[in-house]
Amino acid sequence: MSKELVERWIRPEVRALSAYHVQDASGFIKLDAMENPYTLSESLIDEWLQQLRSLEINRYPDAGAKVLKDHLRDYLELGAEQDVLLGNGSDELIQMIVMAVASNAGSKQRVVLAPEPGFVMYRLVAQSLGMKYVGVSLNEGDFSLDLDAMLQAIEQHKPAVIFLAYPNNPTGNLFDRQDIETIIAATDGLVIIDEAYYSFAETTWIKEFQRFDNVLVMRTLSKIGLAGLRIGMLVGANNWLDEFNKIRLPYNINALSQASATFMLKHVGVFDRQAAQIRADRQMMFEALNRFSRLTVWPSRANFLLIKSEQSQTIFDKLKEQKILIKNLGGVHSMLENCLRITIGSEHENQAILASLGSIEQLIP
Ligand SMILES: *Cc1c(COP(=O)(O)O)cnc(C)c1O
C-alpha cells in the first residue's frame, strides 16, 4: 500500500512518535513493569466471580461509576471539598489533562514540562496532542530536582502543566517537598503530582492540596496489584475536575472494572499486606544488590530499584537467557546510561534474580 495517504492525513507529530513498546513476556519471570507479583487466594477469586455473576453485561456501565467512586473516596480518605475523576488507568487521565489544555491558538504553542529522566507517558501524550514538551534534567547523582533549572524553565516556557512523579519513575526517589512547594508557587500552570507508587512511599500531597489553587494529585490501582483493571484517580477541586470530565468518554471505566475494583476495595487489607511485604523485600533486595561491588544501587521509595553497571547489557542479556525480564534503560536518557530497573517480585522471584546475578562472571570481583 502506498504511504501517500497516510502521510497526507496523519499529523506529522503523530508520525514522528514511536508507539509505547511492551515486550512479550510469556514464560518469563516478569520484573520489568512494576506489577505486584502476588495472585489472589482461591477463596477471594471465588467470591469475586460470584459478584460478577449478577452483572448485566448487556447494559452500559454506570457512566459516573458512583459505587466505585464512593469506595475510592474512603480508600483515598478524601475530604468533603475534594472530588475524584476516574481514568482508564492514570495514563488516560494524563491524556485528558493534556487534551483539555492543548492549544496552538495564535502562534503560541503551549508547554508541558516535567523533570527528566521521568515517566515517558508525559512526553508521549504531550507530543501526540501537538503540545511542546520541555524536559528539565534532574541533578546528576541523586536525581533530586534541579530547582534553579526548573524555575528558569518555568520562567522561560510558562508551562500549562507540570508533571511531578512522587516518587519518580524510573529513579525511585521522592523529590524534596520544599522544592515542590517552590515550584508550585513559581508557576501559574497546573501541577500534577503523580503518586502512582503511594503504597510504597506512604507519603502524599492529597491532604495538602487545599493550600494550592493549581495542584491536583493522581493515583492508580495498578501498582498495588490491580494493573489489569485500569483504574486511575485524579483528586482535587471540582472546578478543575469538572472541565476534564467534559473530555472523558462517558463509559471509560467498563462494567467489569467497576464491579471488580469495588469488590477488591472491600478487601483492601489483602493489598495493604502485600504492599508491606514488598516494602520489606525492597530493603532486602537493596542490601543484597549492594553486596555486588560492581553494581551501583540507588535507594528507592517505590516498588523497584534502579541499578547501574558497566556490564548492564551483559546482565540484561544473561537474565533474559534465564527467562528473567527486567527493564534496560540504556538509550532512554543520558543520565541512565548503563542503568537497569528491577521490579520487586515475590520471594521466589527475588531469590531467582539474585541467584542469576550471582552466576554472572562479569559481576564477580
Ligand atoms: C506506572 C505509572 C503510571 C501508570 O499508571 P496506570 O494507572 O497503570 O496508567 C503513572 N505514573 C507513573 C509515574 C507510573 O510509573
Question: Describe it for me?
Answer:
This protein is an alpha/beta fold and 365 residues long. It has helices at residues 4-9, 12-15, 42-53, 66-76, 89-101, 120-128, 147-157, 177-186, 198-201, 222-226, 238-247, 255-266, 268-290, 312-321, 347-358, and strands at 29-30, 83-88, 111-116, 132-137, 161-165, 190-194, 215-220, 231-236, 296-297, 304-308, 324-325, 327-328, 339-343. Strand 6 (190-194), helix 9 (198-201) and strand 7 (215-220) form a beta-alpha-beta unit. Helix 5 (89-101) packs across helix 11 (238-247). It is globular. The model has no long low-confidence stretch (mean pLDDT 95). Residues 34, 89-91, 119, 165, 169, 194, 196, 220, 222, 227, 232 line the site of pyridoxal-5'-phosphate. The site of pyridoxal-5'-phosphate (PLP) has 13 residues, from helix 5.
Give a brief description.
With 365 residues, the chain is of the alpha/beta class. The protein contains 15 helices and 13 strands.
Features:
365 residues, alpha/beta, seven-stranded mixed beta sheet, four-stranded antiparallel beta sheet, 13 strands, binds pyridoxal-5'-phosphate
Shape: globular
Proportion of helical residues: 40-55%
Beta content comes to: 15-25%
Largest sheet: 7 strands, mixed
Strand order of the largest sheet: 2-8-7-6-5-3-4
Oligomer: single chain
The stretches of 5 or more residues where confidence is low (pLDDT under 50) are none
Q: What is the succession of H and E elements? A: HHEHHEHEHEHEHEHEHEHHHEEHEEEH
Number of helices: 15
